[in-house]
Write a structure and sequence with these properties.
The chain has about 375 residues and is mainly beta. Helix content is about 10%, strand content about 40%. The chain has 3 helices and 24 strands. The protein starts with a helix and ends with a strand.
Length: about 375
């Protein structure tokens, strides 16, 4: 009998070593949703909060493996959870994922909007992270520059009710925390990955991989285990072709929505490394003034600094005169020339956190 059992054990071990272990459902304490994003949009926890694709594309992950991360276009793409999402907003929670940002525009990573008790986890301008909780009852930012552009990071958002703290981690290191976690809520949804109910400038422009949602507050050691368990991409490997910058070619018409119906418009003339810009917008927001072509405009020119455009603008009057009012625009051209993001300062100071995003107007 002992010989028979030993023979069976040897056969089993040979099969496991030769053919590999079958993939089994992943079980981890507190894990209520897990989007591997390895070729499907399914929740690989036991809860089946499956997502529907809205125009995302498969791309290489941080290991350089093909079709094992999702690319978001910064305009419309995302995943929708179809009114089913983890009910984690009445207690502790953790949202963790690998992210890669192409530019410094806003990037909703997981969120809802225009509904009751909405919530967003995002990257905001200034390469800082943000938690928007319960229609803004709590609006928590990290300091600037906690993530780098064009580099994979593990970002983790934690709500810890016992400590009454929101905590945000980057690569398993705490970068910010704040007291007062706000009310327990039941958001109406639906929730999205890579965006919320809005399209345009709040949509992620970059990549997301391995998104996990927990109904517990992970601590730094537990997040470190997640980080150590995922090897980062070998820097000697070539970057995905999609992130290779194209030569700057932005001459033409642009608008905040990518078509001629949107009010905020710019026209750009480019001659090699120099450019001239006309920025125009209605003198009021009324439809009557838009239709009657009552517009204000600024003119500026300059020289590209890499993919940066920093230039002074001068308002133009109806008689052709202009005056220096202290406005300077700071713009960045995306690697694929599809969008321009930026802000302005006046007399050297940034007057608001508002970020402008322009898209190329397609020829009709």
């Amino acid at each position: 009998m002992r010989i028979h059992i030993t023979f069976i054990a040897v056969i089993v071990l040979f099969c496991l070593g030769h053919f590999g272990l079958p993939e089994i459902a992943f079980s981890q304490p507190g894990l209520v949703a897990w989007y591997k994003l390895d070729g499907d949009f399914n929740d690989h926890s036991s809860n089946s909060y499956h997502a529907t694709n809205i125009g995302t594309n498969w791309t290489n992950n941080r290991l350089g493996e093909q079709n094992k991360a999702l690319a978001f276009d910064g305009r419309n793409s995302g995943l929708r959870l179809d009114n089913r999402f983890p009910n984690i907003f009445q207690g502790n929670l953790t949202v963790s994922m690998w992210v890669y940002f192409n530019d410094d525009s806003r990037a909703i990573l997981l969120g809802s909007y225009s509904t009751a008790n909405n919530v967003n986890f995002e990257k905001h301008t200034g390469t800082r992270l943000r938690i928007w909780w319960n229609n803004g009852q709590r609006d928590f930012y990290t300091p600037n520059n906690v993530v780098s552009l064009r580099k994979w990071h593990l970002v983790t958002f934690v709500r810890d009710k016992q400590q009454n703290k929101f905590i945000i981690y980057v690569d398993a290191k705490e970068v910010a925390s704040t007291t007062n976690v706000g009310n327990d809520i039941t958001p109406a949804g639906p929730f999205y990955i890579g965006r919320d109910s809005r399209s345009g400038e709040t949509v992620t422009n970059g990549m997301i991989d391995d998104l996990r949602v927990y109904n517990i507050a992970l601590n730094a050691s537990q997040i470190e285990e997640v980080l150590r368990g995922q090897v980062t991409v070998d820097p000697t490997r070539p970057a995905p072709a999609a992130t290779t910058p194209q030569p700057i070619d932005i001459a033409g018409s642009w608008s905040t929505g990518g078509d001629r119906k949107h009010a905020g418009r710019i026209n750009i003339w480019q001659n090699g490394q120099t450019f001239t810009v006309i920025v125009s917008w209605p003198s009021t927001d009324t439809e009557a003034h838009i239709r009657a072509n009552f517009w204000k405009s600024y003119k500026g020119e300059g020289t590209f600094q890499g993919r940066q455009m920093v230039f002074k603008v001068f308002p133009s009057s109806s008689d052709g005169r202009s005056a220096d009012q202290g406005y300077v625009y700071h713009w960045t051209v995306s690697d694929d020339n599809s969008r321009i993001t930026g802000y302005y300062t006046r007399h050297g100071k940034r007057t608001s956190d508002q970020q402008f995003t322009y898209f190329k107007v397609k020829r009709e």
